[in-house]
Task: structure prediction
Amino acid sequence: MRRDALVALAVLLAGWALTLWVAPWSDERVNDLFVYRAFAKPVLAGELPYREVAFEYPPLAAPAIVLPGLAGSGEEAFRAAFAAWTLAAAAAVVLLCGALARATGGDARRAMLAAALMPLLCGALVRTHFDLFPMALLLAGLLLLCVERPRAGLAVLGLGAMTKGFPLATVPLALVWLFARGLRREAWQAALACAAVIAAVAGAAVTASPGGAADAIRYHLDRPAQIESTPALVLLGLDAAGGGDAESVSSHRSDGLLHPASDAVTSLFAATFVALVGFLCVVLAGRRAGHGHDAPRRELVIASLAATVAFALLGKVLSPQFVIWVLPLGALAFAWRMYALTAAVALAAVLTQIEFPAHYFDVVGREPLALALVALRNLALLAVLILAVRELQPRRHEELLDRGRAPLAVRLD
Result:
């Protein structure tokens, strides 16, 4: 297993080198490094996020962004340090995918190798954004749940939510999963552990600056539908059909759309997301521990990562780096021999890399071919979501078990 991990990490390192020095993977003409550097410099000088420095992310995003600045606040020094910092996070994601595959009856070697292809599939955006850190926390929380450490698992999910919001979608799924397995006491304790972590971290932000923390929440509530999001594509469709003008706006450090139906459309998608999470909870609630060890764990992981995909697909912001959230599902699907799901994840990542950053400004300019490319990417994400939900259906249960047993039989032989 150690050799398999080293091979996967070597593949990851080679891919990281591509994102630094070889086109088109090295294309970073659009990135968030300048935003991060502008934030890191005053914080390292002693100013507090939310109070002296405006900050739109959850509190634990601050160390993920600031720590590379210890190597220097100059453009090149920060770029190099951030690349090394995110490489460490990527290595953690690779190893966690292997451990999760092992814990759910999959092939750890296949999972790690597939996860190591992240740079090849995504390009430079994997090292110019901090999304690998909350992703690592989400995977770590799921792993702890799978190895029967629910309190620690939910606490880590709380840390993930306080780094970037999407791991919060997994919390209700995990609690329902614990209740369904008869672990009611553990579920309540885990819920309290998660709530305590979130309250402590959020409380620190509010203590630093109540107004600044409130501004961070308002920032996201007031943000218009981002041009690459699914709601934005609907608004553009309404515009094309004569259903009101969609006005392009540059605000909140992104490019978005304003339309008379903006609130209605984004609210509809938000309600759809909540309904989907509720549906996934119902599916997990119908499972019982007597079905076997691997399948219930695998169902929790699939449901959690499906909710993560839905968070990106149905939200009013779908920044290109959100594809990082989807890739571990593809790696684990490959480990579980779910090839259609693997292919859909890979397609979504490749389409994102084709679109961003090379054609991003064509998207902003509403060029039809560029918008069609974004629409195809979003359809690929929808396919990922549908295929993931399909794997949770009762008729797939025996197949889940059979796929888990096959690699084990090979190893025993």
Q: What stands out?
A: The beta strands are 225-226, 247-251, 254-258.
